[in-house]
Amino acid sequence: MSVLENFRDWKSFLGERVGQAMEAGMENETIQNVAYQIGDYLAQQVDPKNDQERLLKQLWEAGNEEQQRALASMMVKLVQEPENISRGN
């Protein structure tokens, strides 16, 4: 099963990658820029595998670049909150 097929797994995967980037010394602004680029790629190239991904894609497509960057930033913040990962929210 692909990590993209389960939203909880996707959040965990993203959280681990963000944690690794921070441990490697990457600045938060750089992490958010990478998250924006990944979000843009996913929205354009990957078919949503579940309702959560479908909603994220719809939100992404509805927003302008500033709003997309805000959404990417919120996803980074979401996975940086340990209680969100452990509860699977």
Task: Give an overview of the whole structure.
- There is one protein chain.
- The protein has 89 residues and is mainly α.
- The chain has one domain: Cytochrome Bc1 Complex, Chain D, domain 2 (Orthogonal Bundle).
- Helix content is 78%, strand content 0%.
- It has five helices and no strands.
- It has helices spanning 7-23, 28-45, 51-62, 65-80, 82-87.
- Helix 1 crosses helix 4 (65-80) and helix 2 (28-45) crosses helix 4.
- The protein is globular, with a radius of gyration of 13 Å.
- The two termini are 20 Å apart.
- Mean pLDDT is 83; it is low at 85-89.
Question: Which terms would index this structure?
Answer:
89 residues; single chain; DUF3243; Uncharacterised_YmfJ; YmfJ/YflH_sf; disordered C terminus; globular; Cytochrome Bc1 Complex, Chain D, domain 2; mainly alpha; 0% strand
Question: How is this structure best summarized?
Answer:
The chain is mainly alpha-helical and 89 residues long. The protein is built from five helices and no strands.
Topology diagram in text:
Blueprint: H1 7-23, H2 28-45, H3 51-62, H4 65-80, H5 82-87
Helix pairs in contact: 1-4, 2-3, 2-4
InterPro entries: DUF3243 (IPR021637), Uncharacterised_YmfJ (IPR024702), YmfJ/YflH_sf (IPR038292)
